[in-house]
Amino acid sequence: MYKIYSGNTGSGKTSKLKTEYQQLAAELGSEKILLFLNSARSVSQFREELDLKLMGNLNIYTYFGFVNQQLNKNWPAVERKYSGSNQLIEPTFMNIETSHFLMSNYVAKYRKNRSYFRSIKARPVQIAVQLIDNLNLAAFNMLDFKELKQRLLGWTQQDEERREYAEQSIEIMKTFRDFSLNYRLFDYSAAVSLFNRYLLADQDYLFNLNQKYNYLLVDDLEKMVPAGQELIKSLTGAGINGIFTFNESGGFNRFFGGNPAAAKKRFFNSEAEILEINENYTAAAASSELAQEIKAVVQERKSNLVQSPLLLEEIDSELRGEMLIKVGKKIISLLKKGVKADQIAVISPKIDKVLSFSLQQILEKNGYQLSNFNRSKRLIDIPFARALLILYLFHCERTNIVGVSSLQQALSLLLELDPLRSYILAEEIAASGMKLIDLDDSGLRDKINFQAAEKYDYLKDWLQDKKEEELEIEVFFQLVFSEVLAPLDPSQEDIFACRQMIESVARFHQAVENFHQEKDDLSERYINMIYEGTLAAETLFKGQEKEAGVILASPYKFLFSPELAGVDYLFLLDISSSDWMQSIAKELVNPYIYTEQWQQKNEWDDRLDQKIRLNQLSDFLISLIYKVKKGIYIADSFLNSSGKEQEGPLYRWFDVRGE
């Protein structure tokens, strides 16, 4: 038996779940409760906000975190079932950047040797991401590799070029998967497949979980991948009591494997106690009516226009730059009237540099900040992590990729220098071929001040000493952090970034040493990818701390950030952009073909593609509306930043002026 709190975005479902958790933990002990949340950031936030007098073990996980933990814990039994022997080959769980890196190496190899994907302009790492998405989506939907192959080929529908690329993708994915299983080096897809096959199907395993836990709590059931839904169903079927939440308008993560329709089919039945929640704590009274209108107009393609008192004003210009200036001025006027900066959100389907730079300039000129939640936060952008990487590049004499600006910022931190003196020193080092110079020979000792010169000499000697020790990368990183960076009073973000990078490199080294003798070559390319920011954005960070600034985000980023509860005012930008209706399908991956719905009809055409786009748009807009308390501004331009006419349909569906 289980109960489901069902409601729209902002109805208080998560708060009710948290209250239930705290009451149960106080009565039974937290160790008797298993809780699934949808992101690592949500897990961290939930743990931080708990208020319990006595606290046992906290069994709070993402689904993937739970799968990895259970495979590690039960590996001897899984190994016996998998290989039929008692040999213990310790498994290694790849993080995202490691799996992307290894797959990109396979792609690059096949491209070079066999001319694969010859008409696809994407880089190997971008193709690798799509291939890993295929493996993940198949595993998330409990499909084996044979079924993956059939569905991917079926999607090509007599298109010879697409079929050729599908066959090439299958060959590379098969090579990657065989290697992964052979070396017990598991990415997400392999881990989920092994868990489903060897643990979830084991009645003794389920019995043991039933003995360990009395309650299973799940937030955002609609975002749970079908494999996770099956685990939840198995646990409640084994006698564990369930308490879940379900967002009726939360289907916006379909590309990442979520399947709200499958969740409803599995859980909304006679076994469930459905508790409908009609309140809303983050939205205006008119939100429900506006949400229904949007659903009718966008999803059901009715011809009438959307009207609502929540739609305050339409900001139009022929040129996008002019529109952004008008939006900036409107935001400034709200701020000067006393609206808090973090109660204003600017949402656009694509956060490009023109948009972020324009708003940032306008806000900073008036003394306000912009909090860009779509900023691609590379490791190299975190001061202490940047210093860690740059010291390593000097240590191994690979400074050819180090820029003067990055070096200058690292020197400012390491030597506690002002920007001018650190720039002078960085310029001299660059002029010497990016080699650390002698301060006396260059005449810089007096220019940068005595204290900074002493620190520089110490750092130069320290690097020379470590070079003679021939340290592994992760050992070098640990020594840099403990002996050089830690005394400089790093922030929590700095500590976390350095720890993540140390763990990432350690995992990578652990992975490659199992199968590749030329570790130095692979390590160099891996470090280059981190330095260039190829992999870092969302793979290394649990989430972004909320800053006290005007929020800038894409719809998905805004809705999927647990720290963003709601705002007073919302600006919907670029509403005539076709980016509001992006397809979930890419060149080499289509999430829909792995769903139950595909199995029923086994078809893909423009009509179905448009239907899914409209459903996605409807879910985005409705969820956004339930995050707004006071009003929405619509902003648009006839031409985009490239001077091209915008022809997306969304602008035709809003009637702000009541005309």
From TrEMBL:
Q: Which UniProt keywords apply?
A: ATP-binding, Helicase, Hydrolase, Nucleotide-binding
SUPFAM superfamilies registered for this protein in UniProt: P-loop containing nucleoside triphosphate hydrolases
UniProt xrefs under InterPro entries:
DExx_box_DNA_helicase_dom_sf, P-loop_NTPase, UvrD-like_ATP-bd
Residue limits of the UvrD-like helicase ATP-binding domain?
9-241
Which Pfam families does the record match to this protein? UvrD-helicase
Q: Does the keyword Aminoacyl-tRNA synthetase apply?
A: no
Could you tell me one molecular function GO term of this UniProt entry? hydrolase activity
- Give me the segments passing through the membrane: none
Task: Indicate what this protein is called per its UniProt record.
Answer: UvrD/REP helicase N-terminal domain-containing protein
Q: Which organism encodes this protein?
A: Halanaerobium saccharolyticum
